[in-house]
Amino acid sequence: MTPGTPDRGLGMGTLDMGMSVRLESLRHFEPRRDAAWQRLRAVQPAAYARSRNHLDGAATGLSPYITHGVLSLPEVLGAVLAGPGDAARLEVQHKLVYELGWRAYFQHVRARRGEAILQSLHPGLLPDEAYAPQVPDDVRQARTGVPVIDQAVRSLYACGHLHNHARLWLASYLVHLRKVHWRAGADWLIGHLLDGDVASNHLSWQWVAATGSHKPYLFNADNVARFAPPSWHSPGTPLDTDYATLEAVARDRAAMPVVAPTDDGVIEPPCSRRPPPQAGFTALADAPDRLAGDLAGRDVWLVHPWSLGRRPEALPAQAVPVGAVIDELHPQAWRDARWAFVAGLMEELGAARWHGSAADWSAALRTARSVHLVDDLHLGPAVQALLPPGPGAPAWFRHDPPALFAPVSADCASFSKWWAAATRGLQHAAQLPGLAATFCAHAGGPNVDTTLALPFDQVDGPIGSGRATWAADPLTDRPGSRLRHR
Ligand SMILES: Cc1cc2nc3c(=O)[nH]c(=O)nc-3n(C[C@H](O)[C@H](O)[C@H](O)COP(=O)(O)OP(=O)(O)OC[C@H]3O[C@@H](n4cnc5c(N)ncnc54)[C@H](O)[C@@H]3O)c2cc1C
């Protein structure tokens, strides 16, 4: 094993001295809103479109903040359109808008199919049982002897993030060459990603495996040489071949033998379904009445791991934020670095951090006057059980997160169908409905003059004046309303 491997053992992710964190991953992705906005302001759409597929290209690195609700898609695109030059005239077909569309599309599929996305959506190249149920140790320890794979795993563990192209390579290698079931790969990868999102992750794996698309994603050593730095290049490995050969391998039940397993691998960071002690969460079970006492008669904002952004506009001014991890909502284990990332963002919002079962939460919240949360698909049905209606039960508000694209009611089996429906009739990105709701207010990030508005007069199309349409909720046509009262 290589000495100094990041996240080695339990020494990782220490949150002490006011959340100072000794983690390489958090040096890259700091758990602060202004760090997210700093990245956002650095986005260069033209360079992004040119170089996004290169490992050293101008990808945004925004995904951990987007997954955890620190930045919404309208905030991201709004800030980009407020950039210099003719950024405001970005076409809706621009590569960056398109990639944001992939995220929205995967959410669309998960909203429609629910838990069914955790199973193969349709048969792939081989029957499910032809694939192994576990990711092999040589891959987990980055000692396959195939440089592109070992580098990807090292990079994943070191940063808690992986470039999209590297995710594709890793998934394709595991499924089509090593014959690992896509679900095993997806469950393993998501635990190590700071941006781990069930819809984007599991559906991307299905896309690679051809259980969610109609052809497998395959790659060879030439592709790696074109898009990755030299240390990733993999000449002389089984990837050093043509696509016809790779396709034949993918359709064969036999797994590719390990090339030359090396001994100098890395230790896989541990993952857990509960926050580690150093993340500073108090177990509700250890202090059963304390939180209920603190919240008695108060308006409560339940700050869960997927809504770590700005306060919902409709929140009562005095609402007290409470950082909430609800055990039933964490079927996937996360590495300590992700727990630390979430804890840091909760701390920034002034939210004391608690964790417990849905039953513990139900007991703790019953004394509150009202409970608010921002919806997310990760919440699932378990959240419904938190506050059973009844005499004296607190009022229960679920706020919709801001959406960038118009809702598509048809069940779209392919991204292209969804994209056509979501962008029909639009030429400029500024015409997307979600921008009318948030763009003018937040285009410059936190603490900016909110009079800074998109120069809409430069943009042709239905949104003639940002201010005129901004107050209305484009999804419901109810002015300013994003609130659902259950
Ligand atoms: C096997 C596999 C697993 C993945 N797992 C996840 C995951 O758990 N969480 C996650 O957010 N993304 C996932 N992706 C999608 C994509 O790889 C990441 O969103 C992207 O690499 C994040 O880096 P970035 O912010 O620099 O992306 P950028 O290229 O800068 O894109 C900007 C934003 O657009 C969205 N986006 C870009 N590409 C995609 C895409 N292909 N699919 C969905 N959204 C996209 C993301 O929100 C991203 O932050 C996965 C892709 C693959 C192939």
TrEMBL record:
The keyword Cytoplasm does not apply. One of its GO terms (biological process) is entrainment of circadian clock by photoperiod. Residues 98-224 form the Cryptochrome/DNA photolyase FAD-binding domain. It comes from the Bacteria. Its cofactor is FAD. One of its GO terms (cellular component) is cytoplasm. SUPFAM superfamilies: Cryptochrome/photolyase FAD-binding domain (SSF48173). Binds 1 FAD per subunit. Keywords: Chromophore, FAD, Flavoprotein, Lyase. GO terms for molecular function: deoxyribodipyrimidine photo-lyase activity; DNA binding; FAD binding. Residues 465-486 are annotated as: Disordered. FAD binds at residues 48, 60-63, 99-106, 195-197. Coiled coil: none annotated. Belongs to the DNA photolyase family. This is Deoxyribodipyrimidine photo-lyase. It comes from Sphaerotilus hippei. The lineage of its organism: Bacteria, Pseudomonadati, Pseudomonadota, Betaproteobacteria, Burkholderiales.
